[in-house]
Design brief:
By secondary structure, this protein is mostly helical. Helix content is 73%, strand content 0%.
Length: 107
Amino acid sequence: MIRWILRFLGYISLAGGFIAFVVDGAGYVANGDWASLQFGTAARAVFPGAFAHLESAAKQGVLAMLWDPVMLRLLAVPFFLVATLIGVVLLFLGRKPKPLIGYSNRD
């Protein structure tokens, strides 16, 4: 049951990444300039309260020295790359196990 859920979420995430890539590509064709949707922008749009709370907690805590050089660069990654990576990881985790060759399942 869990593998089915992981595979389903993986396919949904891959579809979202593909849709984001198509939207970014259409914007490139229309404007002639590549401007992709950033992961930080998408996270702020989907989870405005939680993202603001996470940002303030990270700036005050131990992660304050990592916020500017690391987290801001991770949040600037295009959304379609993040969604595709999450989809691939979920599909990898939800794959069916390979059958054991040479072992009998009879008792």
